[in-house]
Amino acid sequence: xxxxxxxxxxxxxxxxxxxxxxxxxxxxxxxxxxxxxxxxxxxxxxxxxxxxxxxxxxxxxxxxxxxxxxxxxxxxxxxxxxxxxxxxxxxxxxxxxxxxxxxxxxxxxxxxxxxxxxxxxxxxxxxxxxxxxxxxxxxxxxxxxxxxxxxxxxxxxxxxxxxxxxxxxxxxxxxxxxxxxxxxxxxxxxxxxxxxxxxxxxxxxxxxxxxxxxxxxxxxxxxxxxxxxxxxxxxxxxxxxxxxxxxxxxxxxxxxxxxxxxxxxxxxxxxxxxxxxxxxxxxxxxxxxxxxxxxxxxxxxxxxxxxxxxxxxxxxxxxxxxxxxxxxxxxxxxxxxxxxxxxxxxxxxxxxxxxxxxxxxxxxxxxxx
Length: 369
Prior knowledge:
By secondary structure, this protein is an alpha+beta fold.
C-alpha cells in the first residue's frame, strides 16, 4: 500500500513524539537511580562524620557510659546506630553504621520514584496514543470528506450539464427545424423530463443544505398515507413511464401525522435509487402496513443489493458505493443522506435489508397514535 505524504509526515511526527516521551521516562528513571546511589554514599559518609564527633565527645569525657554515647548519637544522627565490641572496652571499640531501616527508607523512596515515573510515562504514552489515534481518525475523516466533496462537485457538474445540454439541443432543434406534431410532442416531453430532473436535483441540494445546518422545519398534519403514497408514485412513474414496473400493496385508510412535502422527498429518493440500481425490467414493490403502534413502508428492488459493510455508510453525506456497477450510475450521494435525516426529524427509523431473492429493501417505521 502506497503511503500518502500526509501519512508519512504523521508517522514521522508520531515516532518523534513517542521517542521523546520514552526518553523523558528513561532520563527520569536514570536520574532517580543516580540520586539513590548518591544518598547511599552520603549516608555512609555520615557514619564517618558521626564517628569523629563521638570520638571527640568521648575524649572530652562527655560520656559516662555507653548509654550516654547512644543517646548522643540518637539525638545528632538519628539514622545511624552504634555497635560495640563486647570483648574489648566498649567505649573505645565501637562501630557506627546506618540503621537497616535507613537503607530501607532510601530504597523505598527510590522504588516509589521509579514507579511514579514509569506510571507517568505509561499514562502519558496512553494519552498520547489516544490523542494521536483521535487526530489521525479526524484527519482521515476530513480527507475522506474532502474527496467526497470533490466527487460531489464532479457528479453535480455532470448531473447539471447533461440535462442542460439536452435542453439546449431540443430548443435548437425546435428553432431551426420544422417538425411534425408527434416529433414536437416527443421533444417537449423529453424537455419536461429534463426540467423535472433539474428541479429534483436543485431541491435535493437545498434540502441537504437545510438538513446539514439544522434549519429544516417540519409541518406535521394528519394525513391519509395510503392516498399520499399512491399520489406520489403516480407523479413519479407517469413521466418516466414506470407504471408497469411498480407494484403497490397498500393497507387501506392508514392515517398518521406527517409532513407531506418531506414524505414525498423521502419516497422520491428511495424510488429513484430503486430505479437507478435495478435492471431495466426489474420490479419495484411498495408495501404499506400497520403493526402495533407502527406504520411500516417497505420499498424493494431487484438490483445487485448492498453489501453488509455499506448498509450504514450509504446514509452518509456524499457517500457512493465503491463497486463498479454503482460507479457507472448517476448520482450525487445526497439522496439517502436526505432520507435518513428527514426520518430522524420525524422520529422514524430506516433499515436496509436484503430482498428475496435478490435486491434491497428499505424498511421505514413511523410511530402513529
